[in-house]
Amino acid sequence: MVWSVLVPAAVGSVAAMGICLWWVPGGEKVPTPIRNTRLYQAVHHPPVPVSSPLVLPSAPVPAAPSLPVSSAHDPIATREALNLPSFAPLVHQVIPAVVNISVSRGSPPTDDEPSTQPKTPAARKVVPIPAPHRRHRRQKHHTVRPADDDLTGAGSGFVVDASGIIVTNRHVIGHASRIMVSLSDGRSLKARSLGEDPMTDIAVIKVDSPTPLPSVTWGDSRQVEIGDWILVAGNPFGFGSSVTAGIVSAVGRDLGSGALDDFMQLDAPINPGNSGGPAFNLQGQVVAMNAAIASPSDGSVGIGFGIPSEIVAPVVESIRKTGHVEHGWLGVTLNDASAPMWVEDVDPHGAAWQGGLRKKDAILAIGDVPVHDARTVLRSVAAAHPGTVFNFTIRREGKEMTLPVTLGKRPVADF
């Protein structure tokens, strides 16, 4: 009778002690034979955390590709294995033709006596709208400024001919007494100006090198579409040989700086010092030249502007041949606040007056092309050479007529 009571009690006590050892901290010290039992393993099975997704994926997510051991330290193999895009091949192709430009003003130092004066920044000049040629719808004002470096007098440029022909912005070298060009190979050469065009803010300089220089070619900016990739190179804040990438945000931007305004808007970071640098397409062709940024703080906010190659290339070619550029001129004030646009004023000594245009004439077309805004007319006139004949279709007192107008030469004062 006694044993029938004591034996079950003893067994129960032992079992209770074992269960306590399983659950209390330090239970991992339980003897191996006990830890191997099914009961112990069932109680101590490691918990699996579960986090239910808010939205279940519609398809299984592919696992990231594993890299071969041999490519673990090979950047190219790593990039290819992960299918990551890279601008490195494009950079290697074009960066040797991108140069850094520094300028000084005042009395030029001699070769044996380097200048001890700090570099004076390039003068900021916003080219005014040529008066009295334009008056149209009021536009919003933006903080737009040249992308040059006022602190160091630094800018950018690019070689378009192996003989040393370099393209940059006029505001980069304006009124400079000394222009120095730093090449990608580390050399620094003096440059001389071949000419400039105030209307388009384009300048051409030349360096003399004993060996041919790497050069780049022009692309067709008319083929560029919004959303295309773009690579920008230059000398931001004096940090030479820098590149940034982005897309074309917009085309045909009018910044109010001149009749030929037709800027390409880029979201690639452009900072002071990038002025005059190139913007490349993915084929390594120059499709724009960096010229301005929109920023309240002198730094990049993702809104930069480049002059399209369709404008830059002909101007550069003209400067190389003649040292200057001539633009067509009408001598009228156009008002496109209502349709059709009309002539608000005419310069009595201008080409428009001589061709028969008068106040209150409604402008309907140039040649066979209908026109609806002053900007289209003024851009077409400014892009043409003096002496070009434009056939204006107008309406005067209810009657339509065509007037052949021979363009004049734009006066220097209009710049």
Automatic annotation (TrEMBL):
The chain crosses the membrane at residues 6-25. SMART domains: PDZ. Residues 105-150 are annotated as: Disordered. This is Trypsin-like peptidase domain-containing protein. Pfam families: PDZ_2 (PF13180), Trypsin_2 (PF13365). It comes from Bombella pollinis. The keyword Signal does not apply. Residues 132-144 have a biased composition (Basic residues). It comes from the Bacteria. The keyword Calcium does not apply.
